[in-house]
Amino acid sequence: SAVISQKPSRDICQRGTSLTIQCQVDSQVTMMFWYRQQPGQSLTLIATANQGSEATYESGFVIDKFPISRPNLTFSTLTVSNMSPEDSSIYLCSVVWRDEQYFGPGTRLTVT
Amino acid sequence: KNEVEQSPQNLTAQEGEFITINCSYSVGISALHWLQQHPGGGIVSLFMLSSGKKKHGRLIATINIQEKHSSLHITASHPRDSAVYICAARFNNDMRFGAGTRLTVKP
What we know:
The complex is a heterodimer.
Chain A: E1 4-7, E2 10-13, E3 19-25, E4 31-37, E5 44-50, E6 56-57, E7 68-72, E8 75-80, E9 89-97, E10 100-103, E11 107-111
Chain B: E1 4-7, E2 10-14, E3 19-25, E4 31-37, E5 43-49, E6 52-56, E7 59-64, E8 69-74, E9 83-91, E10 94-97, E11 101-106
Parallel strand pairs in B: 2-11
Antiparallel strand pairs in B: 1-3, 3-8, 4-5, 4-9, 6-7, 7-8, 9-10, 9-11
């Protein structure tokens, strides 16, 4: 299986600041995904990050708000910019490896 | 309308009970996943199915492609099974998630 770690596991941030979440995988993967799970909701795909190309954002998500880096096949970052309380969510990194999808432990973000 | 529907939304059971969670989807899929999310937020993939049935310990997952329906069963449930169970259907490279079933197993 692919093992995914995320940093930080949780954070409390002030409105207007930015937070960068890191995702590390123990295997080389082509496709990495960033999801958001707002309180009481299911997962929503933010963007797909493939190494060597620009991230593809889903409707309702823009690069200025959620810039993503994908410098190599085992690492990605998601930045939540100019945060507001509505950004309080769990952010999950996910990968497809050998046709199975794996999820990270999540980053629980609270914006005050 | 969500393309992946789960039921029930919430489920409370006594320890030892047999539990079934259902998932229906509206279009053809390449695979269906059952995921488990504990209160901390991390998600564990329990099963990936494209046909038939899979078993892992006390967990059994089945899928009926013709009826576009899958079930997750837990035998001899235990309080440590308390979690949110999420059905997720893969449509090509898109993954669509059900709203989740919150299971509470009481001792």
